[in-house]
Amino acid sequence: MKVNINGTIHNVTSSEDTPLLWVIRDELNLTGTKFGCGQAQCGACTVHMDGNPVRSCALPLKLVGEKEIVTIEGMKDKISQAVQKAWVENHVPQCGYCQIGNVMTASALLAETKKPTDTDIDNAMGGHICRCGTYQRIKAAIHQAARELA
Ligand code: FES
Ligand code: FES
């Protein structure tokens, strides 16, 4: 099968039922995207599909088709760079395991909503679990990124 990841078409040998996460990590060796729950419950495996955050652990390859997938390794646009800078400056990560997924969803939020309210952020980020409890720093970083992008 062919899959478009970070702007490159890759020929992959995984079966069509293989979750996208395993193609990204095991076949393409893009290990920034993390495995957490494997049940679409934690957000650690979030990537973008045609610009929207999706959970790659629960997305079989056959549903990806020709859609454009972007992983953290491909997040080089202005919004995602502002988000990553704000993450660093706000010292958001603790263990860091959940943060790639959070950055992916935060970037998608700011692409749609230039000045999100706390409620907008809660609604967008609510499905991400952080065992280290960095939720307030995530919120602060999203507000900072929005200010810098304004
Ligand atoms: S690993 Fe995919 S949502 Fe948890
Ligand atoms: S920073 Fe450790 S799980 Fe979120």
Provide a descriptive summary of the structure in words.
The structure is a single chain. The protein has 150 residues and is α+β, with helices and mostly antiparallel strands. It folds into 2 domains: 2-74, Ubiquitin-like (UB roll); 78-149, DNA polymerase, domain 1 (Orthogonal Bundle), CATH 1.10.150. Helices cover 38% and strands 13% of the residues. The protein contains 5 helices and 5 strands; from the N terminus they run ββαβββαααα. The protein has a 5-stranded mixed sheet with strand order 2-1-5-3-4, with helices on one face. Strand 1 and strand 2 (8-11) form a beta hairpin. Helix 2 crosses helix 3 (99-112), helix 2 crosses helix 5 and helix 3 crosses helix 4 (118-125). The longest helix is centred in the C-terminal third of the chain and has 15 residues, at 135-149. The mean pLDDT is 98. Bound molecules: FE2/S2 (inorganic) cluster (FES) (2 copies). One FE2/S2 (inorganic) cluster binds next to loops.
